[in-house]
C-alpha cells in the first residue's frame, strides 16, 4: 500500500515549504510536487490541507516498565503503553531502568521494548540501571550491545546523586570505554547515558572522563541538565565545548520552586548562552518516579513523568520565540543523531516514514504515522 500526503508544509525539521510526500514500504519514497501516479496503483491519498508535516518524536529516555519506589513498594510507578507513546507523537524511544534494578530487570525492559515494536513504536533500550556493577542481559555490557539488536548503549547510570552507587572515575571510564568499543563493533552509538542528580559534583565526573581519558565527549550523554541551577550552569559550559545537553520535559510546580527550569525555558537560556542547537535534546523521563526529598534525603512526595510533556515543551518553546525548526530539532534530529539512529528524526527520501500531522494554528497533533502506517 502506498500513501500520498498532499499539500503539507514539511518541516524536516528545517522548513521545506509546501510539498507532497509518498510513503512506500514503511519509508519515504518521494518528496516534491506534481507526482503522476498510475491509476491502478494501490494508493491512498491524504489531503494535508496546509498542515505541518514533521518527523515523529525521538525520546531518549522513557521508563516503559515503570520506575521508582523510593517511598517503598506502594510508590512504584506504572508501565507505559505503546498507545500512550503514539498518542503523544513519540514514534521512537529508548527505554531504561532507574533506581530499582532488583524487582525490575533488563529482561523485563527488553520484553516491553519488543511489545512496543509490535505496536508500531521503534523502541530501543539501554542496558544497566542507576547502579554499578551493571545489571545486564548476557553478562557484559559489551555483549549486550553487540548481540541484542535493541540495545544501543548503557544507562541511565546515576552520578552526583545520593541514589547512585558512588561510582569511581575508573569504573566510569571502563564502562564508557566498553560501551564505545561495543558500539564500534556493532555499528551502534555505544552511548553512555547518565542520570544527573542534585549532588554538588554535577558534571565533574563526566568532565574527568572527557579530560582524563581518550573517550570522545560525544559518547557521554547527560540527562536532567535542567534540574537545578548549579548543574545547569555547568551544562552550558559542557554544551559550548561540544557535549550533549539533555533536558527533562516532565516537571511540577514545586520542582520549579526548588530551582528546576522548564525545558522550554532552559532551551531559550542555552541558546542565548551560545550552546549550539545541534547539541541539545529533550527527553520525557516518561513514567519515571519524580521524587522530592527534604534536606536530609527523606522522601516528601513522588509523581510520575509524562510522555506528553515532550511535545508540550516544544509548543511552549515556540511560544517563547524559539523557531519551530529549532524546537523540532531537539526532539527529532538531535536525539536521533546522539543515539546513532540514522533513519530517524528527519524527513527525506529513504528515511523511515515516522510522521506527525500538526495543526498549524493550535499545534495539536492530529495524526501519527509510524513505519508507514497511520496509528492515530
From TrEMBL:
Q: Name one GO cellular component term.
A: cytoplasm
E.C. number(s) listed in UniProt: 3.4.19.-
Q: Where does Zn(2+) 2 bind?
A: 195, 224
Q: Where in the cell is it found?
A: Cytoplasm
Q: Please report the stretch or stretches of sequence annotated as the Amidohydrolase-related domain.
A: 266-374
Give the record's PTM text.
Answer: Carboxylation allows a single lysine to coordinate two zinc ions.
Q: How is the cofactor bound?
A: Binds 2 Zn(2+) ions per subunit.
Q: Name one Pfam family in it.
A: Amidohydro_1
Chief place where the protein resides: cytoplasm
Q: Name the cofactor(s).
A: Zn(2+)
GO aspect biological process, one term: proteolysis
Record's keyword terms, sorted: Hydrolase, Metal-binding, Metalloprotease, Protease, Zinc
Catalytic residues as annotated in Swiss-Prot or TrEMBL: 285
Q: Which residues are recorded as binding Zn(2+) 1? A: 63, 285
Write down the InterPro entries for this protein, in alphabetical order: Amidohydro-rel, Metal-dep_hydrolase_composite, Metal_Hydrolase, Metallo-dep_Hydrolases_sf, Pept_M38_dipep
What are the protein's GO molecular function terms? beta-aspartyl-peptidase activity; hydrolase activity, acting on carbon-nitrogen (but not peptide) bonds; metal ion binding; metallopeptidase activity
Query: Which annotated residues bind substrate?
Result: 68-70, 99, 130, 163, 227, 289
**Which protein family is it in?**
Belongs to the peptidase M38 family.
Alphabetized PANTHER family for the sequence: COLLAPSIN RESPONSE MEDIATOR PROTEIN, HYDRANTOINASE/DIHYDROPYRIMIDINASE FAMILY MEMBER
Q: Which NCBIfam families match?
A: isoAsp_dipep
Function, please?
Catalyzes the hydrolytic cleavage of a subset of L-isoaspartyl (L-beta-aspartyl) dipeptides. Used to degrade proteins damaged by L-isoaspartyl residues formation.
Q: What is this protein called?
A: Isoaspartyl dipeptidase
Q: Which organism is it from?
A: Aeromonas caviae (Aeromonas punctata)
Amino acid at each position: 500500500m502506498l500513501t500520498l500526503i498532499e499539500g503539507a508544509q514539511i518541516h524536516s525539521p528545517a522548513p521545506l515549504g509546501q510539498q507532497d510526500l509518498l510513503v512506500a514500504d514503511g519509508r519515504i519514497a518521494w518528496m516534491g510536487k506534481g507526482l503522476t501516479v498510475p491509476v491502478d496503483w494501490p494508493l491512498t491519498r491524504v489531503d494535508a490541507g496546509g498542515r505541518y508535516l514533521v518527523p515523529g518524536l525521538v525520546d531518549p529516555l522513557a521508563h516503559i516498565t515503570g520506575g521508582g519506589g523510593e517511598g517503598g513498594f506502594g510508590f512504584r510507578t506504572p508501565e507505559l503503553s505503546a498507545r500512550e507513546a503514539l498518542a503523544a507523537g513519540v514514534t521512537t524511544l529508548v527505554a531504561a531502568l532507574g533506581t530499582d534494578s532488583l524487582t525490575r530487570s533488563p529482561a523485563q525492559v527488553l520484553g516491553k521494548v519488543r511489545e512496543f515494536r509490535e505496536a508500531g513504536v521503534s523502541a530501543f533500550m539501554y542496558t544497566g540501571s542507576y547502579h554499578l556493577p551493571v545489571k545486564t542481559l548476557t553478562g557484559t555490557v559489551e555483549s549486550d550491545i553487540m548481540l541484542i539488536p535493541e540495545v544501543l548503549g548503557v544507562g541511565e547510570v546515576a552520578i552526583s546523586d545520593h541514589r547512585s552507587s558512588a561510582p569511581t572515575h575508573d569504573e566510569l571510564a571502563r564502562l564508557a570505554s566498553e560501551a564505545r568499543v561495543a558500539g564500534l563493533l556493532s555499528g551502534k552509538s555505544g552511548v553512555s547515558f547518565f542520570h544527573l542528580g542534585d549532588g554538588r559534583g554535577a558534571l565533574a565526573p563526566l568532565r574527568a572522563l572527557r579530560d582524563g581519558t581518550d573517550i570522545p565527549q560525544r559518547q557521554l550523554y547527560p540527562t536532567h541538565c535542567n534540574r537545578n541551577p548549579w548543574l545547569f550552569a555547568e551544562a552550558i559550559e559542557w554544551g559550548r565545548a561540544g557535549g550533549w545537553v539533555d533536558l527533562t520535559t516532565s516537571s511540577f510546580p514545586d520542582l520549579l520552586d526548588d530551582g528546576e527550569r522548564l525545558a522550554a525555558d532552559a532551551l531559550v537560556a542555552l541558546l542565548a548562552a551560545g550552546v549550539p542547537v545541534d547539541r541539545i535534546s529533550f527527553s520525557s523521563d516518561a513514567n519515571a518516579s519524580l521524587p522530592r526529598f527534604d534536606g536530609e534525603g527523606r522522601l516528601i512526595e513522588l509523581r510520575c513523568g509524562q510522555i506528553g510533556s515532550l511535545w508540550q515543551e516544544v509548543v511552549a518553546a515556540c511560544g517563547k520565540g524559539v523557531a519551530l525548526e529549532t524546537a523540532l530539532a531537539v526532539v527529532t534530529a538531535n536525539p536521533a543523531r546522539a543515539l546513532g539512529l540514522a533513519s530517524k528524526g528527519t524527513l527525506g527520501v529513504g528515511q523511515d516514514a515516522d510522521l506527525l500531522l500538526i495543526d498549524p494554528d493550535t499545534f495539536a497533533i492530529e495524526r501519527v504515522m509510524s513505519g508507514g502506517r497511520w496509528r492515530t
